[in-house]
Amino acid sequence: MITIKRQDMTYHSSELNTSVSHCILVANHKKKQVLLSHANLYLYYASRKSIATSRRYASIILMFYRFLSTQPHFENIDPAQYHVIADNRDIRRWKVQRQIDRVARGSLRPTTETTSLDATVLLFYFRWLKDNRFVTNVDVALRTWQAKFKSPKMLNYIQLRARVSIDSRNIDTLDRASRQKVSRDLISNREIETLLKSYNDPVYAAMFLLAMGTAMRPMDLCNFPYIGNGKNKHIMPFSDMAKSGKTVKYKVEASKGNKTRTITLNMSDLEALENLYISEHYHVRRGLYKKRFGHECPLDVLFLSSRGIPVTPHMVATRTYVAKQRAMQTDPEFRPHLSFYESRHWWPTKYLIEFFGDKLLTEYADGYFQAAAQALADQMGHSSVETTYKYYVNMARVVMDAHAGRVQELISAPSNSVIEFLHLFDDTKLEGIINAPDDEA
């Protein structure tokens, strides 16, 4: 098997006259480093708007190329030419091999859904090659790359190659077993409190609470300003803002897919952000930023680590993972699948409960309400209005069913901040959660 490395690249694009970031793939072949130029061109054109997307696409191509290097008909082929030789059967063989490896390890992952999604991304790559008149054997119009994992013959083949028994269950059954380990319920109040206390650096706890109240993605939170400009010029610390209502609009720019949308912020959430993070930590960290970088911290940067470094989505993910491990040690019932993304489910859940009230538990909410659905999609940044609506109606019902005795109390107090909303369900206060010791790492 050849060695292929994935590297992040940031440089000035002469074509776009701006800075771009994406991954490149470099293979070690016959004691030489070989740039996989066609794959790298695709990563530039298809994923330069999001480094996270670029990493995912690059990893999928990397895994496929590594697999190809193990196949006899690729033995003497330069990896830079793999795209020319590979065909639909190779994609199918790759999918099957991933399931063989999975069964041999006794693992529940990757699921067949994951391997199918990865193969689809791979087809996008080959489609791009064809559209740009590069030579490739893959026919993106054919479905021959699909492997029938429910087939008894396929099951027997995988068992034979993996040299282990699958206990008479097919791959699809294993997928269901995997999904059974992940609860679809919302993160509980107790888990929220445990996770917030488990962050070593209070900036991440503050970001988690703001995400709960706004449904912003980590990439959007990292761009949230200390003082805004343009259409966001009214955004500043709560004590300096004009108090003209319980909510305020905020324009999210360059979000996922480079989309822009306008969302609603609760003023109480901005007040909590100032009390829990800005007043106590932000100004000290601005000083650390200046010492580190030699200039004042830009006013469009709010969230800084304990070392004065602007927080990135990657930092959010890694620090949340560490906090989750600490949370599971503190509370054995803390579910291992929970992540920072759980915060994003809270805004639509809270919104629908306030919008429908006790009618949410009846068939009244099953109808397609354009106003509620559009508000959800706009806040979440989703293009599928109806799917978003139906999903979160069910999620909101779970909360109301679980706390039936507190429903009227919640309905009678609409437009609550995150902490106020949580308090309606739990008498345990969240005071002191944010003021955990700073992370020195």
Give a quick set of tags describing it.
441 residues, mainly alpha, disordered C terminus, three-stranded antiparallel sheet, hpI Integrase, Chain A, globular, 5 strands
Terminal residue distance: 36 Å
The percent range for helix content is: 40-55%
Widest sheet: strand ordering? 1-2-3
Q: What is the helix/strand order?
A: EEEHHHHHHHHHHEEHHHHHHH
Write down the domain tally.
2
Chain-averaged pLDDT: 82
Number of strands: 5
CATH class of the largest domain: Mainly Alpha
Rg result: 25 Å
Secondary-structure-based class equals mainly alpha
Unreliable sequence segments: 405-414, 427-441
DSSP strand content = 5-15%
CATH topology group of the largest domain = hpI Integrase, Chain A
Summarize the structure.
By secondary structure, the chain is mainly alpha-helical.
Structure description:
The chain is mostly helical and 441 residues long. The protein folds into 2 domains: 3-180, no CATH class; 189-425, hpI Integrase, Chain A. 50% of the residues lie in helices and 9% in strands. The protein contains 17 helices and 5 strands. A 3-stranded antiparallel β-sheet has the order 1-2-3. A two-stranded antiparallel sheet has the order 4-5. Helix 4 runs antiparallel to helix 5 and helix 14 (370-380) crosses helix 15. The longest helix is centred in the middle third of the chain and has 27 residues, at 267-293. The protein is globular. The model is unreliable at 405-414 and 427-441 (pLDDT under 50).
